[in-house]
Amino acid sequence: xxxxxxxxxxxxxxxxxxxxxxxxxxxxxxxxxxxxxxxxxxxxxxxxxxxxxxxxxxxxxxxxxxxxxxxxxxxxxxxxxxxxxxxxxxxxxxxxxxxxxxxxxxxxxxxxxxxxxxxxxxxxxxxxxxxxxxxxxxxxxxxxxxxxxxxxxxxxxxxxxxxxxxxxxxxxxxxxxxxxxxxxxxxxx
Length: 189
Hints:
The protein has helices at 69-74, 118-142, 168-180, and strands spanning 3-8, 24-36, 45-62, 79-82, 87-88, 95-101, 116-117, 144-145, 150-152, 184-186. The protein is of the alpha/beta class. The protein has one domain: Gamma-glutamyl cyclotransferase-like (Hypothetical upf0131 protein ytfp, Roll). The strands form two sheets. Strands 1, 2, 3, 4, 5, 6 and 8 form a seven-stranded mixed β-sheet that branches. The protein has a three-stranded parallel β-sheet with strand order 7-9-10. Helix 3 links the parallel strand 9 and strand 10. The longest helix has 25 residues, at 118-142.
């Protein structure tokens, strides 16, 4: 029987946000990342979107005893989709891999009422920096759509539930990359 794994491409790349065992870098082919809003949540968040010409780096990890309940609760606005044949990974035994994605008919573009959260971006980029280095974090920015959306600067009072404290170099990296892509930061009301 194949061991169950998930492929994470956002906050699940940051190992400080979960304790699932056997995390390993991996690549998901045929998908891209996008910042989207859905009526299921008040703010925008990352989702995977099918795109035959794309691939994204991320992290796989084991789901012990096939107990998806905690992860399904964490990712409750997403559907869990089988993705085994689309993931390139270093695990040598048989695995079944799922990816979480918001159904396409539930996507909306982020806007001022439903912005991206800087605290969420911080968590994701911190994970990419720690796993893939600066080049990998740059690839995260390059392979993610939706950076034209407003970004709520909530770093001082994080609204993202799994926010992490960034080291100064990590915060500087995030700020520099957002500046390079002319991201539009807005202040909390």
